[in-house]
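Structure tokens please, single chain.
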Amino acid sequence: MGSEPRPEREQAATPDATRRLVDERTAYDRDYDRIVFSSEFRCLHDKTQVFPLSTSDYTRTRLTHSIEASCVGRSLGQQAGLGLREQGVDLEPARMGTIVAAACLAHDIGNPPFGHSGEAAIQHWVEQRLAPPGTGSSSPFRTEAEWKDLRDFEGNAQGFRILNRLQSRERRGGLRYTAATLGAMSKYPRPSVLPGSREPAKGIVSEKKFGYFQDDRELAELAWRELGLREREPGVFCRHPLAFLVEAADDICYAVIDLEDSAKLGLLPMQQACELLESLLPDTPRSRPSRHLETRMAQARAMAIGELIPACVSAFLEHAAALEAGTLETSLKSLRPQVKKKLGAITDLTRRYGYESERVLQIESAGFKTLGGLLEMFACAVVAEAPNREEKKLRQLMPLECFQRPEFAAADEEAPPERDEAIRRLSPYQRLLCVTDYISGLSDSRAVELFQRLSGIKLPT
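Here you go.
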């Protein structure tokens, strides 16, 4: 269920004796460290988890959510590894825990500003402003898949792109994470358009969304074939078994932690939130809950997570053979109907009082206009074959590295291209991806500030 090779293997020098003594990290430890030290991961500190631009020091961001999911993921991976070893599978549980932890760290790294609302803003702008190919209107896309990559813009696909293209852009494969880590973080290993343009099949969890853009298809298929994932149709793969554990870690934190944040912000009664979390616990005698509601909430959250982890691990172990064969296509929580029902009740309450609260909806609406406005400016400037004066200035605001590609790296070292030349050698579809790379990489606050400045609402001081 794990694989050491990297899709683009690097030729490392043989370490000397001293190096071997001080660096006993596995390839998976290196993956974990590379994610932690990446600028894209740090940017998550100012990206929405549930509550955009929160002024509370307590409220979680995408960064803290990812760290917490990684902790839960490590426990899931290690416990599942111990269970598999007891079943006679030759593996190291600690390594399995590290793979899942690293994948959890990276699972939201591709999210644009304002979270899922930001994804919707990009999708809406593309649908309104860019025509699909073959409709009689001028289109920047050559294929339906290129258009749907952006019309259905997906943070999961952007995350794969960040790890494999946008970090260390000058070389193919980016930072070259192990195939196992890439497989574990890829919950949806399929393109935006399924073979025959068919609709995603109901009940197949890996087809719910898509996991790579056409621009990154070659590397995605290389990684997943190297892992031995079953290819149901050309370019459409079954999940890596560890992706189910990553999904479970996200589901646990998404439900339990978002409920806690909503209660802490006063959007729903703390008493009700505590009771919902305590409903996840077994009906066995336990110590009397604290009278202090915040302490009770912390205790309930910890105990709820402590119950959910073994429930998901047991589901994983029961169905390990089917997961390995790629014949099971449902989430681990769905294999435990009572767990799914209780988590659903928690999520419904959080949605009603948290996700759909007036302040959240107001800021998400503003985020829609912010991202749509930035796309209007930068996309038009980058796609233009003969940019006007304003468009030239907008091009200059985008870092030159946005337009770097590994196939041009050798030539660029000898003669770095001018910005317009770097843009000219890209297809219109690739140029638009450069724009979504840039905009989705902004933090919430930076996106708002940039839009205000470029719109003349707020000028630099």
